[in-house]
Amino acid sequence: MDNLWIWLVAAVVVIAAIAGIAFGVRASRSKSAEVEAPAGEPQVEAPKAAEPKAEAAKPAAPAVEVPEPVEGRLVRLRSRLARSNNALGKGLLALLASDKLDDDVWDEVEETLLTADVGIADTTAVVESLRERVKVLGTRDPEELRRLLKAELTAVLEPELDRSIATVSPSGEGPAVILMVGVNGSGKTTTCGRVARVLIAEDKTVLMGAADTFRAAAAEQLETWGSRVGAKVVRRDAGADPASVAFDAVKAGAEEGADVVLIDTAGRLQNKAGLMDELGKVKRVVEKQGPVAETLLVLDATTGQNGLQQAKVFGEVCDVTGIVLTKLDGSAKGGIVIAVQRQLGVPVKLVGLGEGPDDLAPFEVGAFVDAIVDGAES
Ligand SMILES: Nc1nc2c(ncn2[C@@H]2O[C@H](COP(=O)(O)OP(=O)(O)O)[C@@H](O)[C@H]2O)c(=O)[nH]1
Ligand SMILES: [Mg+2]
């Protein structure tokens, strides 16, 4: 019995010793692994060392993104345009395909156009002309009617207008200054960024001025775009005089030999006199250094008649040379393009069809009409 006890104790001691040795070996192995890893296992170390490097490089040299080509952008974004304006094209074609094209049908055609925000003058013009041509040609062929409808819509959109964005100063000297105006939330800052992105891709140097000094966030938003696209931004603290920021931006642009200076302005529309004072001053101050090349009015397409009212006020306050119609992707009323152009007598030059950096397209009458009449396909 005694012997058995001795053996048992001995066995426990031996087992404990073996376990202890094993644990010790493991512990020292993992310790040595910790210590040795950097030298002995470079493949493990590599990503560790690379990570902080990549992080450190980020703020210093952000990667400048390259945009998608501008040519054919409207065609690429066609499905968004067609989706949002389905009611217009499909509705009109369905009506024109009616068994009898009587007064009631023509009244409905008129109503469809008015509902799509086309505006009374152009609606009347389109309907009268279409009616006349259908009568003269005596046609009931759907393809022929589609062609006639497209021709009428094209005509009221005035395809002959110059829709290019000026990138050369009218004086021939210094940067081309582009003022971005419009009410808050219409998409001015976004448009500055997206236009800069395209110009930079065309090898132009662009500087942006944050003349919306009413909110600190506005200048930050512009700076974010600036670092993303590779454009320098001139800004001051919130509350600074917008005109002097604009002046500084144009001055810096001239000194640095920038091709284009984009001025992002504030759009408080509390009263016309205030707006006139503010934008008038920005323009006057900028023009001490040379004429403004372009004043782009940014309008939110989803605001409909309200947008037209804004267009009227801005048109009276500043010399608008082009319209940027944003958020056309969210509007079921593509007719606003026709109405706003008519209202101001200046062309729609760019359209926004989403929030992405490449969702701004040059406005092309043909592609637009095809999209709203034919829909997403063909
Ligand atoms: N869906 C859509 N959103 C847009 C478009 N353009 C701008 N936005 C959005 O509208 C909001 C206001 O834009 P912002 O540039 O800050 O307007 P600002 O106050 O005039 O400078 C932002 O959330 C933009 O992303 C567009 O074409 N489509
Ligand atoms: Mg803004």
UniProtKB/TrEMBL annotation:
It holds the Pfam family SRP54. Residues 34-63 are annotated as: Disordered. It catalyses: GTP + H2O = GDP + phosphate + H(+). The chain crosses the membrane at residues 6-25. InterPro entries: AAA+_ATPase (IPR003593), P-loop_NTPase (IPR027417), Signal_recog_particl_SRP54_hlx (IPR013822), SR_rcpt_FtsY (IPR004390), SRP/SRP_N (IPR036225), SRP54_GTPase_dom (IPR000897), SRP54_N_sf (IPR042101). Its main location: membrane. It is an enzyme of class 3 (hydrolase). One of its GO terms (cellular component) is cytoplasm. Keywords: Cell membrane, Cytoplasm, GTP-binding, Hydrolase, Membrane, Nucleotide-binding, Receptor, Transmembrane, Transmembrane helix. Involved in targeting and insertion of nascent membrane proteins into the cytoplasmic membrane. Acts as a receptor for the complex formed by the signal recognition particle (SRP) and the ribosome-nascent chain (RNC). This is Signal recognition particle receptor FtsY. The lineage of its organism: Bacteria, Bacillati, Actinomycetota, Actinomycetes, Glycomycetales. The gene is ftsY.
